Amino acid sequence: MPNDLRALAAEAEGLQAQLTEWRRDFHRHPETAHQEYRTAAVIEAELAKLGIETQRVADTGVLGVLHGLGEGGRTVALRADTDALPVQELDWDRPYCSENAGVMHACGHDGHTACLLGGAALLAAHKNDFGGEVRFLFQPAEEVGGGAVPLIGAGALGGAERIFGLHTAPDIPTGTVGLKPGLNNASVDHFTITVQGRSAHVSTPHLGIDALYIASHIVIAAQALVTRMTSPVEPLILGIGKLQAGTAYNALAETAVLEGTTRAVSVPARARIRRLLDETAQSVAALYGGTVSTEWEDFTAPLLNDPQVTREAASVVDALYGPGHVKSDRALSLGGDDFAEYLLKVPGAYAYLGTGDPDKPGTQGPAHNGAFDLDEDALPMGAALYAGYALGWLRGGFD
Ligand SMILES: [Zn+2]
Ligand SMILES: [Zn+2]
């Protein structure tokens, strides 16, 4: 790894004021999934100032492309997610508080977007120092698992041989980077099971089919899939959070609707739990004379970092800041992130940028909470990681 990355870290520190300004602008104007129109327009304007050509993808996504003027013909993709959450920010004295009632950047995506703009600024300033192509993916709708797949479908990855992304991490301190090969996040899927029965008076149950009773059995049977049908050493969640059935206290329910989510830690386990739940729901319904239909919505695959790219990214952190900044023991989360979808296509790594500072309220999490904040002193490190990884790959520094 070239040792001039130390200089790049210093240049990133020089962007602190600009990074903070960008982050606060996005924080004041948060937009939920698929509504990121203002955010996209700001990103386009900022990239244009840097001389980076842009293209709108999937309505509210922005693809920026920067060609290096030096040697080499590699391509790297860098991704930041841009959406906010339907969360009310707690009304306290932050000068950059959300101006959209009930909407807040409570997951740090304002920081990711600022960091990637910072990475773009650094790379644009160094375009004589590398060849090939950098593809900046400003992705909407991460929170609903609907952003990555449309971008991939629109060809946003181009010919990228590598992808790198990052998420802010309130659980680790500013100045550290969580980087772990393999599993980092679980898959996330959403299911709806509709049970069809036949209504009848409770005094004549033999004339009807009780959808509520069947649905109750499905809830119980589903838990056996986790405790009896799958390995106890591989984490798996099958949660049912909604059950709606019946219209009258003295009638058998005609229909029942169950809604829930599964979280798995490998691609085969994700497919298997779906099949098991489908079969179980059908069998239980058939046992009591009813029928079911199950609909699945894919939110995201499990997030599996490529081991080689994870090593490359860790070497970039070392080259930027010296040894001792990489944390490889960050706890696994069964939350999901659709960065995983890119990793199914291109080898890559997802890093966790430490943004927790015990002296700054809200920065140690939890995320998705109205009191959440992030330590803006971490933003230069995020920008340097994006630019440093891209330079490392494009200049062949990992060979
Ligand atoms: Zn989130
Ligand atoms: Zn997030």
Keywords:
399 residues; alpha/beta; Aminopeptidase; Alpha-Beta Plaits; 2 domains; eight-stranded mixed sheet; four-stranded antiparallel sheet; elongated; binds zinc ion
**Parts with pLDDT < 50 across at least 5 consecutive residues:** none
Q: Beta-sheet strand percentage?
A: 15-25%
Shape: elongated
Q: How many domain regions?
A: 2
- Integer average pLDDT: 96
Counting DSSP H or I runs of 4 or more residues, the number of helices is 10
For the biggest β-sheet, the strand order reads 1-2-4-3-5-14-6-13
Q: Could you say which structural class the secondary elements and strand pairing correspond to?
A: alpha/beta
Bound compounds, each kind once, are:
zinc ion
Write up this protein.
The structure is a single chain. The protein is an alpha/beta fold and about 400 residues long. About 35% of the residues lie in helices and about 25% in strands. The chain is built from ten helices and 14 strands. The chain has helices at about 5-15, 15-30, 35-50, 110-125, 150-155, 210-225, 265-285, 305-320, 340-345, 380-395; strands spanning about 55, 60-65, 75-80, 135-140, 160-175, 175-180, 180-185, 190-195, 235-245, 255-265, 290-300, 305, 325, 350-355. It is elongated and about 80 Å long. One zinc ion (ZN) binds near residues 143 and 368. The site of one zinc ion (ZN) has 4 residues, from loops.
Can you give me a brief rundown of this structure?
The chain has 399 residues and is α/β, with parallel strands linked by helices. Helices cover 33% and strands 24% of the residues.
